[in-house]
Amino acid sequence: MTSEKQAATQARVAAVLTGSNGVQGLAVDAIGIDHDGMVCVTATPEQLHEVCVLLRDALGFESNTFVTARDHGVGREQRFEMFYQFLSVAHVDRVRVRVMTTGDDPEVPTITDLWPGTSFSERECWDLMGVRFSGHPDLRRLLMPQGYDHHPLRKDFPHVGIEPDKLYNQWDEERRAAFAISEAERLEGKR
Amino acid sequence: MGQVGLSEAPFSESFAATRLDWIVNWARKNSLWPMPLGLSCCGIELMAMIGPKFDLARFGAEAARFTPRQCDLLIVAGTMTWKMAQAVRLVYDQMPEPKWVMTMGVCSSTGGMYDSYAVVQGVDSILPVDVYVPGCPPRPDAVIDSIIKLQQRIQRERPVKDLIEGIPDYADVGTGHTLHQPNRAVAHKKLPALPTRPSQD
Ligand code: SF4
């Protein structure tokens, strides 16, 4: 079910992205309409940054709503699919960009240089799905503790977790060792 | 001055004889200052309990202090994640003796419905817990009831004996068990204990 508005957005996006100043190698049929009625651009990781520049500067999508990823299952060649969603307040419009990646440890270019606020979305995506964003200035974990080795929202992660208490126990042991030393020094000083 | 005072009362009413244990415990149990550690939704119910409607002041526990240095009772209200566990442990360690711990809600008692990779399956795996309050969230009445139970328990403690004999080493590390999750059970090792108050009962 495509409304006039969606068709107009699709035409507008397609005209810019595949026009003369558009993205290299992006076919016209890469701009479709998803089952939920949102205009969707299917790009490769190499095209992503260029697509985003055009979306922001030529088409007026001034904010990035979210960045997320989907795990298509262990053992797939094309395992992680990235989703970027953009909002234009001026045009009252939304658009989505899908990027298919390959391999178990995929890497896509960051778009933090275009929308600085995307930094948190990308950190969350790295934390929970294990997608690396090349060029991200500060790619730390966001939700899980620093130093955790796994990515909990992957399909092969057991829902009860893998050694969730490991980091806590390490911290606790170090703390107690330090306490024992300082306590010994204190008693030494008393004598 | 000049009204009912010690000097005017008959001699037999001018003093009370009691045990030192009893009077120390009486003072402690009626001035339990809670550390309101509201980690998630149970924290809302905790606020209701301290507020005027349920009025925890009737039991001497209304002086909620947001610094652990002034608190006697740690109320862990809400879901504790492994990332937050370090902070909770630090708060507990910073509280001066004597101190007690209450887990409010099934989340902090057993992990509750969050049998997941992020949530500690019961605060008792990292802290020695004195009272567990079930409920999701427990009604303020239930928490007040358990505060009364805790007071009854404090009344049975032996502070003078501890003072004379010294506080024996007592593991304050919690059980280390993580319920329901056999793959987690192996991670626990017995840790060197810090000296603290003896276990009751
Ligand atoms: S026990 Fe229920 S109300 Fe309390 S923190 Fe857990 S989920 Fe929230």
Report what the structure shows.
Helix content of chain A is 34%, strand content 21%. The longest helix of chain A is centred in the last third of the chain and has 25 residues, at 166-190. Chain A has helices spanning 4-17, 45-57, 118-129, 166-190; strands at residues 31-33, 39-43, 63-71, 80-88, 93-100, 107-109, 132-134. With 191 residues, chain A is of the alpha/beta class. Chain A is elongated. In chain A, the strands form 2 sheets. In chain A, strands 1-2-5-4-3 form a 5-stranded mixed sheet. Chain A has a two-stranded parallel ribbon with strand order 6-7. Chain B has 201 residues and is of the alpha/beta class. Chain B has a domain at 32-165: Rossmann fold (3-Layer(aba) Sandwich). Chain B has helices at 20-29, 42-50, 82-94, 106-110, 140-154, 159-165, 182-185, and strands at 34-38, 73-77, 100-104, 131-133. A 4-stranded parallel sheet of chain B has the order 1-2-3-4, sandwiched between helices. In chain B, strand 2 (73-77), helix 3 and strand 3 form a beta-alpha-beta unit. At the A-B interface, helix 4 of A face helix 3 of B. Bound molecules: iron/sulfur cluster (SF4). Iron/sulfur cluster (SF4) is lined by residues 40-42, 78-79, 105-107, 112, 136-137 of chain B.
Task: Supply database-style keywords.
heterodimer, A: 191 residues, alpha/beta, Beta Polymerase, domain 2, 2 domains, five-stranded mixed β-sheet, two-stranded parallel sheet, 34% helix, elongated, B: 201 residues, Rossmann fold, four-stranded parallel β-sheet, 7 helices, globular, binds iron/sulfur cluster
